[in-house]
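One such shown below:
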Amino acid sequence: MVDRVTESGYIIPMKVELLQQKQGVVLTIAGNFIRWNADGEINRLSNDIRRLKPKKIICRDNGIEQWDSSLVVLLYNLMRGFPNISFETKSLPEGIRRLLELAFAVDRMPSLPRQEKETWLERLGGQALSMEESVRHGLTFIRKIGASVLSWIKGRSVMRSEDFWFALQDCGPGAVGIVSLISFMVGLILAFVGAIQLKSFGAQIYVASLVAIGMTRIMGAIMIGIIMAGRTGASYAAAIGTMQVNEELDALKTMGISRTDFLVLPRILALVSAMPFLVVLSDVMGILGGASVGVFMLGITPAEYWRYTIEAWNMTNFWVGLFHGIVFGVVIAVCGCYFGMMCGRNADSVGVATTRAVVYAIVWMIVMTGLITLICEVIGI
């Protein structure tokens, strides 16, 4: 028996007892249970249950006047604390029974989803399906770019000229400083490494030829490609990816504006237009870097260095280098714009898209270099 004293001094009895009767163990409940602290009763009743060790407990309403969640908490804790005991609650008020059913319907300690280990064949199939989907999306994107270029040639594109000039300013004059510095250092390193071997034969004068051929045919274009992949390709992916996060791409689609025409085409045209000039700049700065090693470290006169450079200069190598640069420009722009378009809807996705744009651009540049080199070898260039 538990008594609760109201503000008026009236004593309201609250009775919750566990009794051993003929039909079994009975939990009798009677009284007014409003804002009732049931902690002590839970401990007492739990001890009685452990002492009696019943298999079933019959919950009986012996005159419940008013009740709130405190009585439901008492019953819920008893039922949860003794899951092996069956509780019969059919004589309790319907509201209490419904609340108890709802409380036990919710898994309050959810288990982790079962993770079944995939077989190697399932993993292989999943990777194949993922690769197939990536290739399909990539080819669809390239097809859209081709349609946009064709539309631009016909004069039907929605590309704005100011977007093209802005992108050209960023990837052209804006990249001159870093391109000049890196190309100069690459030419210097190429000359220094070549001089180590050539000096042993007394042929250090051919450092000029080595640098001129290496820079004009491939090294200049590759260095420009790597620089622009990290600088411009990442910028394209970050800019378009941020527009994806801000739902600006959805707005363009809603307005019926081709996102490929409006966003991708000016960036591709700008980078492809800037790459040949950057390759020429890289060739010149690389030759100057090699000249600094030849003149100041190997004792070659400027006139001799210039003469051997001109003799080694080959327009075929020069055009091959320019072609590499144009191809690299297409690869970098397509990778940057593609991963920007495929970006997710959160801030972390922008970083992931930027990283993938740079990595894939460099990988595809190496692949294209191998293909171009193979074709040049076959046709004798």
Summary: DSSP finds twelve helices and five strands in the chain. Residues 2-105 form a domain with the Transcription Regulator spoIIAA fold (CATH 3.30.750.24). The two ends are 105 Å apart (CA to CA).
